[in-house]
Amino acid sequence: MTHYVILEGVIAFFLIAGGAFTFIGSLGMAHLRDFYMRLHGPTKATTLGIGCMLIASMLYFWVTEGKPDIQEMLITLFLFITAPVSAHLLAKTGLHMQLMHVDKTRGKPLELYEEEVGEKPVPHPDKGHG
Amino acid sequence: MITPRAWLPTPLLSLLLLIVWLLLVRSMAFGHVLLGAVLGIAIPLVTRRFWDDQPMVRKPWLLLRFVLRVLIDIIIANLQVSWIIINPWRRTRPAFIEYPLTLEHSFPITLLANTISLTPGTVSANLRMDGRTLLIHVLDMDDENALIEEIRERYEQPLKEIYEC
């Protein structure tokens, strides 16, 4: 019986860790300073949070049903494919809309210059900006 | 004579489709393996016109090592970003940096951009139209050159070995 208690503890640990990471990711989205920084929270912390929850789920059903089931890995796989792509598209949209960034941000990309609007599709000839 | 290259252009993708199918139906029955194999061969053939032609994976073992390294890095990056968010005395040093790419094909570049987004406090923001530089937003940056160097040897170099040597 005692190993059930240990497994319960492990499952609970993963659930709490998952919840904490997801919460921190959402918190980052709520209170970091500018759009580009806010993007970091959901893309990273949330990935690990969901991962922890899925591990807990896999363990739980392994213990209760008696056979391992790795179907939940699919969710992780799809998440790993979609999360960075959506982050990239959001960042790209932010650059296109020329959203403000905090003053201390170093480096000013060409995309945020005023005169660059409307000329995006041409290759930028100059390298080494900033 | 039909070469394997003609009806199995992307063996890894076919294998992945088969595994996904088996996981989706939650069964290892022979019929499902067969159906998954048929789907894994048919789907890449039907959709091949939408794809750029992809470079072959030269060294699958290196790919496996790369995936493991990225998984570990994801955990570390998560802890770092979480700490930056909840640390009340945080002093972040955000920055935009331009990463000069040395990869040629679009698929490895996509992989690299996704890896960068998932790992160390960086989000890939824009791939320039000329395909030569990647714009990256960094949450907390010490030194631009050190970061570029780290990305180059941790992620880009393995990808280059896997796909283009």
From TrEMBL, chain A:
<dbReference type="Pfam" id="PF03334">
    <property type="entry name" value="PhaG_MnhG_YufB"/>
</dbReference>
<dbReference type="InterPro" id="IPR005133">
    <property type="entry name" value="PhaG_MnhG_YufB"/>
</dbReference>
<feature type="transmembrane region" description="Helical">
    <location>
        <begin position="45"/>
        <end position="62"/>
    </location>
</feature>
<keyword id="KW-0472">Membrane</keyword>
<keyword id="KW-0812">Transmembrane</keyword>
<protein>
    <submittedName>
        <fullName>Sodium:proton antiporter</fullName>
    </submittedName>
</protein>
<keyword id="KW-1133">Transmembrane helix</keyword>
<feature type="transmembrane region" description="Helical">
    <location>
        <begin position="74"/>
        <end position="91"/>
    </location>
</feature>
<feature type="transmembrane region" description="Helical">
    <location>
        <begin position="6"/>
        <end position="24"/>
    </location>
</feature>
<dbReference type="GO" id="GO:0015385">
    <property type="term" value="F:sodium:proton antiporter activity"/>
</dbReference>
UniProtKB/TrEMBL annotation, chain B:
<feature type="transmembrane region" description="Helical">
    <location>
        <begin position="66"/>
        <end position="86"/>
    </location>
</feature>
<keyword id="KW-1133">Transmembrane helix</keyword>
<comment type="similarity">
    <text>Belongs to the CPA3 antiporters (TC 2.A.63) subunit E family.</text>
</comment>
<keyword id="KW-0472">Membrane</keyword>
<dbReference type="InterPro" id="IPR002758">
    <property type="entry name" value="Cation_antiport_E"/>
</dbReference>
<dbReference type="GO" id="GO:0008324">
    <property type="term" value="F:monoatomic cation transmembrane transporter activity"/>
</dbReference>
<keyword id="KW-0812">Transmembrane</keyword>
<dbReference type="Pfam" id="PF01899">
    <property type="entry name" value="MNHE"/>
</dbReference>
<keyword id="KW-1003">Cell membrane</keyword>
<dbReference type="GO" id="GO:0005886">
    <property type="term" value="C:plasma membrane"/>
</dbReference>
<protein>
    <submittedName>
        <fullName>Cation:proton antiporter</fullName>
    </submittedName>
</protein>
